[in-house]
Each structure stands twice: as C-alpha cells, then as structure tokens.
C-alpha cells in the first residue's frame, strides 16, 4: 500500500507520536496558537534556506527581488525585506504593504496592467519604480508626474517576441495585455526622454511556474539580447534589467525540482557575453512562488466522515475559498492532488478517501483518492505547497465562511506571529 507520507515535502517531519511537525512544532500547537482552523503556517526557516540557495547559485551581483503577489502576509514581508534586494508589487495595496514592511521605495517596482491614476500617483509620491505597460500608461504617468512636480522613476516593460517554453502561465510572446510589444518599444522609449521621467531600464517577464532550466536559460539569454538591442533607443543608460523569473516548484508527483545550479551557470555565461551597452547594468530576478510556496502548509480539520456510492469522503472545515490552487481551479487544465497528509496521525491501517472542503460545490476538492491512515472526525489535514497563491489568491468571501488565519513560524525573529 502507498506510504501516506510519500509526498510530504522536505523540511517537514513527524514526532514520536506521529504528529506532523511544522518548524519543529506540532501542527495542533500552531492551531491552538491561532485559535482555530483553517490556518496557514509559513516556515520562515525554509524561506531563508531557499533564499540562500538562490543567492548561492546565481552569479554574484544579480539582485533577488520578491514578487509580493505570491504571498503578501505582512509578517512574511517584514521578515523578507532584509533578505532580498527588492519587492515587486502589483497594486497600491501591495505597495503599501511593501513600504510598511520596511522595503525602501527605490527598491520597489510596481508592474501590472491597468494601473489607475491614483496608483501611479502613489508610486511617484513614494519614489517607487513604475514598470510601464503601455504608451497610454507612459502618457498618464508623465502628466501625473508633472502635476505633482516630481520625477517618475520608470522601467519599460517589454512584451517579448518569445515565450518561456513550458510555463504554467505564459506572460510573453504574442498578443498580451502585459508590457509594450518589442516592435513598439522604440517609439515609447522616445517619450521617456522627458525630464519628468527618470528612466531606469527594462522589465521583461516571459512566464511563470517553469521547471525546465534550459527553457529559463534560453528566455534569459533572449531577454538580454532583446534589451541589448532596445538599449540604443533608450533615453539614458540602462541601470536595471529585470529579467523576470518563472522559477517553478514541483506540485505533482511527476514533476522534478528546478536545477538551480544549471540556471545560475547559464545566467553567468549570458551575463559574461552581454552586449557592451549593458556592461554597467544591474540585473534582477523577480521570484514569487519559488521563495515561499514550499514553506507553507494549509491546516484544516475533518468535520465529517461519510460514504457515498462506495467512496469515503472526509469533509473538512476548509476548502477552495482559502486554497483555490489546491482545488485545481487556479490556472490548472487538469485537476491533480497537491501533497496532503493527516497531520494528527501517521499510523494505522491505510484507507483511500476523497478529502473535500465545506462549500456546496463539486469544485471544492482538496484531494481525490488519497491514501491516508484511518482518519477520524477531529483530525487535522495538512495540504502542502500552500505558501504561494493561497489565501490571497482564493475567493475568501464565497459562501460567507470565516477567513483562514495565518502564522509565520520564524525561529530568527521569535515564535509564531500573525494577525
Ligand atoms: C510580473 C510578474 N512578476 C512576478 C510574478 C511571480 O511569478 P511566480 O510566483 O511564479 O514567481 C508574476 C506572476 O504572474 C508576474 O506576472
């Protein structure tokens, strides 16, 4: 019979009684601390190790930015701020969280289509860098900067004529709402010569959730080549090139972790051979899920155990309203199980169960036909890979259940914290 813990990610363990340990503490203790289930716990020790691994593998001088959209929990951002070189934000709300976490404004870049005038103004006032997504957005930014009597620090986001092959989410190549098409970039760059702009460089984001080092390396090389060709039309030196990211994590059994060392070696070679015009430029990677996804666990309690049509259902107090991605409804074409275990016990006869949430929709599935030790009402279920695109990427208000709590387990900054 399948080992029910076979897919438990590295960094998690059981105690002598078979209880799941998160950052060395039983899952049940985290729940007691938070007051109730459902609960997200993020192990900052695992995030720190991941950051160290990325820093160790990438060429010296390459900056590491965190994409706040992956997980904007305030305590997590405060812990991350001193560990990375910048935050990338996608809204005025995320900008506020990044500043509140202590990230200096010039190290914050704000990308995303459809920035409203008040968002452009907030970024200019704060002194953050705007990643301009269109000619229209450049024109609105210019007008707002002039009216505020401030310079707007800007990157031009370019929609590259290539994609990041094999990405979970394609963000470049072809018609996209993101960035200015490479062919149109020179015309927009000409408008950035106005003294109300402080031109900082370029931003290219070609895709995300990619496990193929060679595809990432090719996209980085193509990005450096593209930016090198556009740099001649830029209104000033290219100080910063944001190469995007796309580093993926293995969610499913057939997936293998990204070969970080191979990405780093290829990037070193790309940068060594970069065009002379980019000689003094600084290069940055913006990573979201790669830094935090595997450090997070979603804990939910079994409230009912029932059979229907011969199938055992374990009904929990959580579901897709907190952890949409695990239900398979956040960008997945085919639903597959995230790793999931019984956090209260590891021993006993193994049974096969469908673990579902408490919402009245057949979409609310956390695990189909999962092998678990015989599970009782009251047991905790842990769904892994919950550190990115969890709580804030889920329809929390749907059906009016309470929101999930969140805790940051941080051995460096003290015990668990959270609202
Ligand atoms: C511009 C931009 N930056 C960063 C990210 C973060 O991607 P990931 O969490 O996969 O690293 C995204 C994701 O869509 C993005 O659109």
Kindly describe this structure.
The protein has about 425 residues and is α/β, with parallel strands linked by helices. It has two domains: about 15-45 and about 295-415, Lyase, Ornithine Decarboxylase, Chain A, domain 1; about 70-285, Alpha-Beta Barrel (TIM Barrel). The chain has eleven helices and 23 strands. About 50% of the residues are buried. Bound molecules: pyridoxal-5'-phosphate. Pyridoxal-5'-phosphate binds near residues 208, 209, 289 and 290.
Largest sheet: 9 strands, mixed
CATH class designation of the largest domain: Alpha Beta
Helical/strand content category: alpha/beta
CATH homologous superfamily descriptor of the largest domain: Alanine racemase
Unreliable residue runs: none
Q: Alpha-carbon distance between the termini?
A: 41 Å
Report the total helices.
11
The unique ligands bound to this protein are:
pyridoxal-5'-phosphate
Kindly give the count of domains.
2
- The coarse silhouette is elongated
Q: Which radius of gyration do the C-alpha atoms yield?
A: 23 Å
Strand content: 25-35%
The count of DSSP E runs of length 2 or more, i.e. the number of strands, is 23
The name CATH uses for the topology of the largest domain is TIM Barrel
Whole-number mean pLDDT: 95
CATH architecture group name of the largest domain: Alpha-Beta Barrel
Portion of residues within helices: 25-40%
